[in-house]
Amino acid sequence: MPSAKPAFSRVLLKLSGEALMGEQAYGIDPPTATQIAREIGEVQQLGVQVGVVIGGGNIFRGLAGSTRGGMDRATADYMGMLATVINALALQDALEQIGVTTRVATAIEMRAVAEPFIRRRAVRHLEKGRVVVFAAGTGNPYFTTDTAAALRAMEMRADVILKGTKVDGIYTADPMIDKTAERYETISHLQVIGRSLKVMDSTAITLCMDNKLPIIVFNLRKPGNLRRVIMGERVGTMVSTEA
């Protein structure tokens, strides 16, 4: 039975860059960014502290640039990190358009557009009721924004990572391809790794497992789902130490 008050007090929302595309094939769709901002704003009004880590795959994906384009992997990854900053600024603008005070904290210094990531300062922003969007991943090549989400969640002492996707949880196979795929309601970190389920990369999952940090994978595209998850409703799939 869902409670009358939020189930979590501080959360880390992980968004892929593709979440901002809407139905477009590339880039940022402003109405989609506004819709996501409204969902975050609604949760913030409940008194929940929200940090966001956003990817850059809608603009540039480092691994793809390295694999297909023959680019140096580190260079391609840095380009991907810059793409996440573009997305973070777009989300910040969408949030502030609806009156939600937001800060972008970037792992790569660019003081003209965002503040550098300083853990204690970011925690203070959360405590003051500001949404903090963490950009530029971990600031290091070879690490994904999934790993950045796990790292920032740990640093912020978040209660949970909420991974917003276009499907309603974790399945035994890709539900877009295999119609017989079944959804897990709960699963352990170890099972996710052992079954090679594409939830987050193995570094991120291992980091969460070692620190007993739960992950909830849910469909972000369904309006109101973020609030439902925050209120403790059984939405999506819960990944925990003990499934």
- Rounded to an integer, what's the Rg over CA atoms? 17 Å
* CATH domain class: Alpha Beta
Shape: globular
Strand content: 15-25%
Q: How many structural domains in the coordinates?
A: 1
- What is the average per-residue confidence, as pLDDT, rounded to a whole number? 94
What does this structure look like?
With 243 residues, this protein is of the alpha/beta class. It has a single domain, classed as Carbamate kinase (3-Layer(aba) Sandwich). Helix content is 37%, strand content 19%. It has helices at 30-44, 62-69, 73-97, 119-127, 145-155, 189-194, 202-210, 225-230; strands spanning 10-15, 49-54, 102-106, 115-116, 131-135, 160-165, 170-171, 183-184, 186-188, 215-219, 237-240. A nine-stranded mixed sheet has the order 4-3-5-2-1-6-10-11-9, sandwiched between helices. The protein has a two-stranded antiparallel ribbon with strand order 7-8. Helix 5 (145-155) packs parallel to helix 7. It is globular.
List the helices and strands and how they pair.
Blueprint: E1 10-15, H1 30-44, E2 49-54, H2 62-69, H3 73-97, E3 102-106, E4 115-116, H4 119-127, E5 131-135, H5 145-155, E6 160-165, E7 170-171, E8 183-184, E9 186-188, H6 189-194, H7 202-210, E10 215-219, H8 225-230, E11 237-240
Parallel strand pairs: 1-2, 1-6, 2-5, 3-4, 3-5, 6-10, 9-11
Antiparallel strand pairs: 7-8, 10-11
